[in-house]
Amino acid sequence: MNGKLSLRRPLTKMDYLLTGLVISSVIYLYYPVIVKMVRQWYQDPNYSHGFIVPIISLYMLWQRREKLRTTPVNPSNKGLIVLASGVFLLLAGTVMAELFTMRTSFIVILAGLVIYLFGVEVFRVVSLPLFYLFFMIPIPYILYDAVAFPLQLFAAKASVNVLQALNIPVYREGNVIHLIETTLAVEEACSGIRSLMSLIALSIPLVYFTGSGLLRGVIIVLSAIPIAIFVNLMRIVLTGVLAHHYGAKAAMGFFHEFSGMIMFGVAMVILLTVTYVVVKVPSFGRK
């Protein structure tokens, strides 16, 4: 046994007391942080995928329950170093009023607790579900803008090229597309970053549940980038085509309201198709 304990050992009163104390402390520390983050998921469509990330994480953890039962428990003081790092991030984020740092510290704290209470071997088993939680954290606005603005310009330029290839009179000024009957502005919401973040977040579980291996997994995750860009481009082009042939009301009515959901569904179908093809291609060896 090498002095290691099994996860199946009987729990003592001290175990329950320590677990309750730890859970209570984490809830007390992070309740305001988590409430604000959930509110942002609800209010900002760019991060609505945050609601499903913890659910997927818990499901991945549940799938590893048999592995956890057989993994030896060997509490490690190395977890204290990780815990100290998480507390430092929390304090720094609080002082600077920087939400991303505060939210990130929550996952660091969880990692430190797992190592300290259960050991490194248990941490290895739960590391993927744990670190997947990073996808629920909204990225800093400075980084968001740095990605969204170039995507806006690219989407506007590429869609104009496609519309011109379809013999539709159109020209572009920055992120504004001018047609004969109307003008379309490729706003931040039309940059495609929303679909991009959601697709990447969903591609990780696809890799995990298909057992794709490293090489296949990298291909699947990276494929989410061009898929999101392509589908967003098609959305703008279709809007332009409708506006040209049927007027601005047709383009900005039902289609505009629901095209985002429709196109994201298309993106998911493409991503699932790519996943199926990549998994079935024998030339990509499992790593």
Describe the structure concisely.
72% of the residues lie in helices and 5% in strands.
Architecture blueprint of SSEs:
Layout lengths: L4 E2 L6 H31 L9 H11 L1 H6 L1 E2 L4 H19 L2 H20 L1 H12 L9 H25 L4 E4 L2 E4 L3 E3 L7 H18 L2 H34 L1 H5 L1 H27 L7
Antiparallel strand pairs: 1-2, 3-4, 4-5
Poorly predicted spans: 1-11
End-to-end Cα distance: 31 Å
SSE succession: EHHHEHHHHEEEHHHH
Widest sheet: strand order? 3-4-5
Oligomer: single chain
Question: Which sheet architecture does the biggest sheet show?
Answer: 3 strands, antiparallel
Structural class: mainly alpha
Looking at the structure, what is the overall shape?
elongated
Strand coverage percent: 5-15%
Kindly describe this structure:
- The protein has 287 residues and is mostly helical.
- It has helices at 13-43, 53-63, 65-70, 78-96, 99-118, 120-131, 141-165, 193-210, 213-246, 248-252, 254-280, and strands spanning 5-6, 72-73, 170-173, 176-179, 183-185.
- The strands form two sheets. Strands 3-4-5 form a three-stranded antiparallel sheet, with helices on one face. A two-stranded antiparallel ribbon has the order 1-2.
- α1 runs antiparallel to α5 (99-118) and α9 (213-246) runs antiparallel to α11.
- The longest helix is centred in the C-terminal third of the chain and has 34 residues, at 213-246.
- The radius of gyration is 23 Å and the shape is elongated.
- It starts with a strand and ends in a 7-residue tail after the last helix.
- Residues 1-11 have low confidence and may be disordered.
